[in-house]
Every structure is written in C-alpha cells, then in structure tokens.
Amino acid sequence: MAFHQQYVSIEQPAMSQLIRELRQTLKLTQEKFAVHLGVSFPTINRWEKGHATPSFLALKQIEILLNQLSESADATVRERCQSMRRKYFL
User: Fold this and answer.
1) Burial (Cβ within 10 Å: 0-12, 13-18, ≥19) of residue 73
2) Could you tell me which residues come within 8 angstroms of residue 75 by beta carbon, excluding any fewer than 6 positions away?
3) Rounded to an integer, what distance in angstroms lies between the CA atom of residue 44 and that of residue 37?
4) Is 62 helix (H, G, I), strand (E, B) or coil?
5) How far is Cα 31 from Cα 70, in angstroms, rounded to an integer?
6) C-alpha 46: how far from chain center
7) CA 40-27-69 angle, 5° bins
8) Per-residue pLDDT reduced to its tens digit, 21-72
9) CA-to-CA distance for 50 and 65, rounded, in angstroms?
10) Would you state the pLDDT for residue 1?
11) How open is the CA angle 68-73-76, to the nearest 5 degrees?
C-alpha cells in the first residue's frame, strides 16, 4: 500500500472532526496548533471548517503526533489519542 492510500478513506466530515478533536485534546488554539504542525492559522481553520483537506504529508504528521501522544504520561491525553488512532487510522 502506498504511503498516502491509507488516508484516502478518511472522509471530510471525519477529517474536520479529527483535527478539532486533536487540537482540543492538546488544549491548543488554532494558531498554536498551526505552529506545531508547521502550517498557517488559516489552514487549520479551513481544515476544521471542512473547506480544505490536509495534504498527505500533513496527515502523516498528524498520525505521527497521535502515535507519540498515545504513549503520553498524561492518561487523559494518552486515552484520547489512542481512541483517535483507532477511529481514524486503523
């Protein structure tokens, strides 16, 4: 399976929810989450509103972030991120 094909199955409403849910789990504003991912604030805003879809590279970064946070010492963050991984990427 090619690197990007695993993300094709995530539909837009779910994509928007994933971005918002991850950002809120991290307790970050859209601006701070954008900096964390290396994108602009308007990009995060468009993703959350469903007006744009993250690139395959951005989705890979999000998946890597979820994988890292799934090992977090913070039980709440760890459980939420594990749940998001199962829901969106497995």
Assistant:
1) exposed
2) none
3) 9
4) helix
5) 23
6) 13
7) 90
8) 999 999 999 999 999 999 999 999 999 999 999 988 998 899 999 999 999 9
9) 21
10) 37
11) 90
